[in-house]
Amino acid sequence: MPGQRIVDWDIRYYKGDADGNTIQEINSGAELTQDDYIVVVASVTVEDGSALNYAKDVQWRFSASGYDNAGHSENVRVRVLDENGNVVDDAAGDAYATYSFGLDYTGDGSRHTKTFKAIIGPLSGGVYIWTAASASTYIYKRDVIMPTGEEGGEA
Amino acid sequence: MTWEKVVEVSLVPMEEAVEPAADWEQVTSKSITVNVVPPAPSEGGIRVTNANIVFKDENGNVLNSGATLEQGTTIQVIATYTVAPESGVDKGYGDVRLSVKFNGVDVGSDSRNYSGITGSQSGTITVSFTASQTGNNIPVYAVLEKRDNK
After folding, report:
1. Residue A59: pLDDT band by 50, 70, 90 thresholds?
2. What value, to the nearest 5°, has the Cα angle with vertex B73 and ends B70 and B77?
3. Residues of B in contact with A136 (CB under 8 A)
4. Terminal-to-terminal C-alpha distance of chain A
5. What is the ipTM of this complex?
6. How near does any CA of chain B get to the CA of A85, in Å?
7. Are A81 and A21 within 8 A, CB to CB?
8. Which end of chain B has fewer CB within 10 Å, C or N?
9. What's the gap between Cα B133 and its chain centre?
10. Calpha distance A63→A79 (Å, rounded)
């Protein structure tokens, strides 16, 4: 059996505040005010296999754009918080904020869930006054080959 | 001949395009598009400033303390003021009332209702009554009050 395997993931969007507190889960079409923030909660669960061959690195990427009625777009500030609430990346004008995490390997078949949160906003606009905003979250993985293992992996 | 893009405009927000680094494999992704609207205006009470009350006889002459009037004279009590939303709110809701007493007896009152005013505006309330009693130093008392409805 291979080493670590990603067995579950979840991405949820919320109406929230500047501190990352969630108020209400939202879907596309939700109406937010210029004072609101979008809070993303994204988690990945990894299961340890029985063979010591390779582990996983997991990466979360969060991006967001604001739009006005004329089709202008701007990047929205995105801050990524770790599990302790510390800001680990702050993309004020960049295309996205990212955070990578190496999951510890135990080889006992246990499952480990890592959750990261992103605060997107404010939605008050930059050069343009936004009337819409979009946010995207991507979760990536890559295999990390252990010294005693075989090459390869599975998600 | 190929076409070259000059400008691209979309009324529907375009999907984000984030390319992973070469050695990363995408597990999942999820996007959301929301509408952004101005925040709802804050609501509260009203603020009344620059208030003034004058007494006039039926000919429009201003009456002061000590004035002598004939019985049956109509007295006008006129209050002028400026009303605006209370400090820190966008919309103000409330009432302004003028009440008049003649020799300790209520002889009239009138009020104005303000609902959702967004800026400063002037107001006038007039109450008229007839001086029905005779005597010296009869007190005429008028008060302008306000109350908040939010």
Report:
1. confident
2. 130
3. 15-16, 18, 29-32
4. 13
5. 0.84
6. 22
7. no
8. N
9. 38
10. 10
